[in-house]
Amino acid sequence: MSGGVDSAVAAARAVEAGHEVVGVHLALSRAGGTLRTGSRGCCTIEDAMDARRVADRLGIPFYVWDFSERFRDDVIEDFVSEYRAGRTPNPCMRCNERIKFAALLERALELGFDAVCTGHYAILRDGENGLELHRSSEEAKDQSYVLGVLTADQLAHCLFPLGETPSKALVRAEAEARGLAVASKPDSYDICFIPDGDTRGWLAEKVGTAPGEIVDRSGAVVGSHDGAHAFTVGQRKGLRLGVPAPDGKPRFVLEVRPVSNTVVVGPREALAIAELAGARFTWAGTAPDAPHEEFACDVQVRAHADPVPAVAVVRDGELVIRPDEPLHGVAPGQTAVVYAGTRVLGQCTIDRTVSAVPAAV
């Protein structure tokens, strides 16, 4: 129970369905003064109190479990190390993978619980070869992307009561009707452990600053920076380039090279990616029948991006994905989730990309 409206209604529906429900809020920070800033952040003191009030209203036991050390090691430190390596991590994916459906689920099973129930918008269905994870009925709120890291064993111990709900407005209306005080509470967004939204400043404190060069694709120096970690692939603003492009068009970050502390920029068309691959891949349920042979799929590289038709194959220890049309602004460290229709097949953390545009352009 995060303290938001989705998990509150999910808990209410689980109670109504006849399950023996216990509310658990995760304490992910040991900073006692951690407070919510508007819609930013989650898992704060206010959120814990909101969750407790909902549990009291539902008449279920409520506990706060301290996972702050695990969260620091598995999510925050991973976030910092990925940026140090010049990659663009997704901390929500790591949190789902290593905290909510690993650490939390492991403890729950040890204590005799059967499943972890959350307010995620996704659907579990029995397929011919086992349990399948599918998109929710509401595409605008669908959260199957961030659940793409879950394995078959984890899915077997999950409940997602909101998956079939057509809209978030209906969830809020249900919370209001049930007398839950969080009915109109704003959704949280941004990175929960950077509640003020200043990711660049937060990283500067953790990683430090070091002057470096900004170069174009030919290697010519066109600007300077205070730390490569502050840049992400696809970034346009804040580059402060001293040399304009020959064609006068804006330039974008194409690559971050942490070893040399160099940022590479170029034209927007150079962001087009023809292939992406990752060695850290998993299947959400049963693997494709012949993953070492090319299979058709859709690929999604951001939580709110549109899926794109593609072909994928497991080759040389990597999940290799080739979209039918080039993708733009894809960075190592992001997560690529592959689908078959509405079904989540699996995911990989992107290790490398292949540009669709030769470097001479």
TrEMBL record:
Residues 141-143 are annotated as: Interaction with tRNA. One of its GO terms (cellular component) is cytoplasm. Its EC number is 2.8.1.13. It is found in: Cytoplasm. The keyword Transit peptide does not apply. The active site is at C95 (nucleophile), C192 (cysteine persulfide intermediate). Residues 202-266 form the tRNA-specific 2-thiouridylase MnmA-like central domain. Disulfide bonds join C95-C192. GO terms for biological process: tRNA wobble position uridine thiolation. It is an enzyme of class 2 (transferase). The keyword Manganese does not apply. ATP binds at L26, G119. The record marks H120, Q334 as: Interaction with tRNA. Its main location: cytoplasm. Residues 276-350 form the tRNA-specific 2-thiouridylase MnmA-like C-terminal domain. GO terms for molecular function: ATP binding; tRNA binding; tRNA-uridine 2-sulfurtransferase activity. It catalyses: S-sulfanyl-L-cysteinyl-[protein] + uridine(34) in tRNA + AH2 + ATP = 2-thiouridine(34) in tRNA + L-cysteinyl-[protein] + A + AMP + diphosphate + H(+). It comes from the Bacteria. Catalyzes the 2-thiolation of uridine at the wobble position (U34) of tRNA, leading to the formation of s(2)U34. Belongs to the MnmA/TRMU family. This is tRNA-specific 2-thiouridylase MnmA. It comes from Microbacterium sediminis.
